């Protein structure tokens, strides 16, 4: 970067124009009779049948043992099948058995959230994977690893043994769901492109979705920016654009609720968090940036943060802006308009949201990242001291062309 470019940066402007806060890069036992009870029964048996006490005693003992065996077997089935006990017994009466081997061909089977072992067995049986839902439920119930089976669509084979089917369900490679990672600080336009690339759904389909149909909180004001929560999502191959966005909104609402931010403060918190995400490397600096925003607002100073300009231009790659870009009339231009912009300027992650919800305590009004590689950031209350830090930043940029 040459000096003329740096002179266009926000850091070279005079205090009478309202000095910038700073610049940073964009960035889951059955009841049975005991021996004592059996002994206690003998006198009564003998008194009732003096002609054949031994025969009646033997009869009672046989019945007691039979009761123990039946009830003991019931307990074993309960332990093996769990809540699938009754369906499993029914399946057994209608025909059980099992295939042998690892099967042939391919078939897709969907495991739904909350499915029990028997429910999965039914889905497998209907798809021709296993011979008996009850047999599969018994095999699954006897394996402690079964609890690791996740909802999703699985590529299975036909006519598999129940054990082989379970083995495939436990193999992550069998699961066909799409894993998509949405990074913190991305714009909605970037999120659409990322989702489209990973799932194959055209970008146009995401643009057609009505945000108001996604369950957004009132604080979103019917707009997606700021409320598509960054995370790694696993979507079914058939998931529509609307279903994918709805999942992101739902997770975002859950995270926001856990922060305990009052409803009337939620929109401001998300907007501030978007600046924290765009202007800092987070850590302790995130909460300090949030405090700078609050302090400048209280003093009536414009925020003057370049991340808002980058949002307007929808351009990445630099941490500085030009005079022409800063002269844009967009309501999101924090150089021309005081206070917070109308809405968030990106989709912040949980750490940024936490920083915005609980800013650090301090009098800072300015900050600048003096080293774009290490992220070293200096905060100041005095403008003169801030200018000294700005010159350090400018020197770093001159010594590292193309990185500012």
UniProtKB/TrEMBL annotation:
<feature type="transmembrane region" description="Helical">
    <location>
        <begin position="60"/>
        <end position="78"/>
    </location>
</feature>
<feature type="compositionally biased region" description="Basic and acidic residues">
    <location>
        <begin position="14"/>
        <end position="30"/>
    </location>
</feature>
<keyword id="KW-0812">Transmembrane</keyword>
<keyword id="KW-0456">Lyase</keyword>
<protein>
    <recommendedName>
        <fullName>Endolytic murein transglycosylase</fullName>
        <ecNumber>4.2.2.29</ecNumber>
    </recommendedName>
</protein>
<comment type="similarity">
    <text>Belongs to the transglycosylase MltG family.</text>
</comment>
<keyword id="KW-1133">Transmembrane helix</keyword>
<comment type="function">
    <text>Functions as a peptidoglycan terminase that cleaves nascent peptidoglycan strands endolytically to terminate their elongation.</text>
</comment>
<keyword id="KW-1003">Cell membrane</keyword>
<dbReference type="InterPro" id="IPR003770">
    <property type="entry name" value="MLTG-like"/>
</dbReference>
<dbReference type="GO" id="GO:0009252">
    <property type="term" value="P:peptidoglycan biosynthetic process"/>
</dbReference>
<dbReference type="GO" id="GO:0071555">
    <property type="term" value="P:cell wall organization"/>
</dbReference>
<feature type="site" description="Important for catalytic activity">
    <location>
        <position position="279"/>
    </location>
</feature>
<feature type="region of interest" description="Disordered">
    <location>
        <begin position="1"/>
        <end position="56"/>
    </location>
</feature>
<keyword id="KW-0961">Cell wall biogenesis/degradation</keyword>
<feature type="region of interest" description="Disordered">
    <location>
        <begin position="317"/>
        <end position="342"/>
    </location>
</feature>
<keyword id="KW-0472">Membrane</keyword>
<dbReference type="GO" id="GO:0005886">
    <property type="term" value="C:plasma membrane"/>
</dbReference>
<dbReference type="GO" id="GO:0008932">
    <property type="term" value="F:lytic endotransglycosylase activity"/>
</dbReference>
<dbReference type="Pfam" id="PF02618">
    <property type="entry name" value="YceG"/>
</dbReference>
């Amino acid at each position: 970067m040459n000096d003329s470019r740096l002179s266009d940066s926000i850091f070279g402007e005079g205090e009478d124009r309202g000095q910038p806060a700073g610049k940073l890069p964009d960035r889951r036992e059955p009841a049975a009779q005991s021996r004592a009870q059996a002994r206690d029964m003998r006198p009564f048996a003998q008194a009732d049948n003096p002609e054949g006490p031994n025969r009646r005693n033997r009869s009672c003992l046989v019945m007691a043992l039979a009761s123990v065996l039946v009830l003991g077997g019931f307990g074993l089935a309960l332990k093996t099948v769990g809540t699938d006990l009754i369906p499993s017994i029914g399946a057994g009466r209608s025909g059980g058995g099992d295939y042998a081997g690892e099967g042939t061909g391919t078939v897709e089977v969907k495991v739904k959230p909350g499915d029990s072992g028997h429910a999965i067995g039914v889905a497998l049986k209907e798809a021709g994977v296993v011979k008996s839902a009850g047999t599969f439920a018994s095999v699954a119930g006897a394996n402690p690893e079964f609890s690791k089976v996740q909802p999703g669509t699985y590529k299975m084979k036909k006519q598999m043994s129940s054990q082989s089917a379970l083995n495939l369900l436990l193999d992550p490679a069998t699961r066909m769901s799409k894993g998509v990672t949405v990074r913190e600080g991305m714009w909605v336009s970037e999120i659409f492109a990322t989702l489209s690339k990973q799932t194959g759904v055209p970008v146009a389909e995401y643009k057609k979705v009505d945000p108001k149909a996604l369950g957004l909180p009132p604080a979103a004001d019917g707009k997606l920016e700021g409320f598509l929560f960054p995370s790694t999502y696993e979507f079914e191959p058939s998931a529509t654009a609307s279903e994918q966005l709805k999942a992101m909104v739902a997770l975002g609402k859950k995270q926001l609720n856990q922060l305990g931010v009052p409803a009337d403060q939620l929109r401001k918190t998300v907007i501030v968090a978007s600046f924290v995400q765009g202007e800092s490397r987070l850590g302790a600096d995130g909460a300090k940036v949030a405090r700078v925003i609050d302090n400048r607002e209280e003093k009536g100073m414009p925020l003057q943060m370049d991340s808002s300009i980058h949002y307007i231009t929808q351009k990445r790659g630099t941490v500085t802006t030009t005079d022409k870009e800063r002269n844009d009339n967009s309501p999101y231009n924090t150089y021309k308009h005081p206070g917070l912009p109308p809405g968030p300027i990106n989709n912040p992650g949980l750490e940024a949201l936490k920083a915005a919800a609980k800013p650090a305590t301090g009098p800072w009004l300015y900050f600048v990242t003096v080293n774009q590689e290490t992220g070293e950031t200096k905060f100041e209350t005095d403008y003169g001291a801030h200018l000294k830090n700005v010159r350090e930043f400018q020197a770093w940029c001159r010594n590292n062309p193309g990185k500012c």
